[in-house]
Amino acid sequence: MEALVARGHEVRVLDDLSTGRRENLASVLASGRVELIVAQVQDQERLRAAIEGCRTIYHLAASVGVGAVTQHPLECLKNNADGFQSLFHAIEAVGSQGGRSASGGPAAGGSGAFDRVVVFSSSEVYGKSTAPALREDDDLHLGPTHVPRWSYAAAKAFGEFLALTTHREQGLPVTIIRCFNTVGPRQLPTYGMVLPRFVAQARRGEPLTVYGDGAQTRCFSFVEDVVNGVLDLAAHPGADGQVFNIGSDEETSVLSLAERVIALTGSSSDIRFIPYSDVYGGDVADIQRRVPDLSRIRGLIGYAPRTRLDGILRATLETQIAADLPVGR
Ligand code: UDP
Predict the structure, then answer these.
(1) Band of the pLDDT at 106, cuts 50, 70, 90?
(2) Of 116, 114, 61, 121, nearest to 86 (Cα)?
(3) Of 205, 80, 218, which is closest to residue 154 (Cα–Cα)?
(4) Whose CA is nearest to atom 11 of ligand 1?
(5) 19: CA distance to ligand 1 center in Å?
(6) pLDDT tier for residue 109 given thresholds of 50, 70 and 90
(7) Gap between the Cα atoms of 168 and 111, Å rounded
């Protein structure tokens, strides 16, 4: 929101504040350029009112976090799948009422009413693939349907299909973003995300809970880098109808992340290895390696994340201290 306002846009936000906080928007609301509508994305009437007159839509409304997905799978699945359906339904309705087509007539499927619909997906859709670097055109390797974790990826993949099919059949300009482990200020440690959790645990002098043996790897990217990349893609004609990985390709193991957090905070915490079965019950499902191939986004907009892991760790620590964020478990 801050980045959109800084680029001179006026923004309407629809958020049910289920995991967000109104205070996070305080500075942009004070600018007078942001309107907040507190509603669920499934609320068609409010959603249509929210997108009416907007040129670009960023669809981020979703239940996120492996913790949330494994604890409340049905709620998350419904929120995410229904959220996508609701969005595309509203786009079609608003577009057919007032959208402009190339010929000046009403636009099919809302294709003329919007310059771009940016759909947030997730690196989770790659599933268990351990390819050295995951490419947008790779096959997806999801686990079985009785393991709740994969329902998140399935719902995100459904959203991608919905967006790309609407693009192909009705000309709606869409861009799909697959985010890889994005972290930064205001991210709560409550929904399972490892970095804010480790920082919160270290601040309290509690053991850092490394799941499994900690050899699994991730690449963490700073939210500011990701936001700038997304806004550049939204404005780029070459991103229409395309899927993009976004994130960092600086790979680190979870164990080494824990060690770096302890060193940075000077904490007396030690590391506790928690067996996967204690975390996920019988349905053990973790992703052993996750590294994005960033050549597509680099090629189109020259994307180059500026903040490296040390900077991300420092920023997470500083903002937790400043906001005195609670420690989630
Ligand atoms: N993880 C961990 N301890 C925690 C939380 C997460 O070791 O307290 C691990 C988790 O098993 C995964 C990695 O950290 O391998 C990243 O987890 P996160 O939920 O942040 O993101 P994911 O990449 O799984 O979506």
Answers:
(1) very low
(2) 61
(3) 80
(4) 211
(5) 19
(6) low
(7) 11
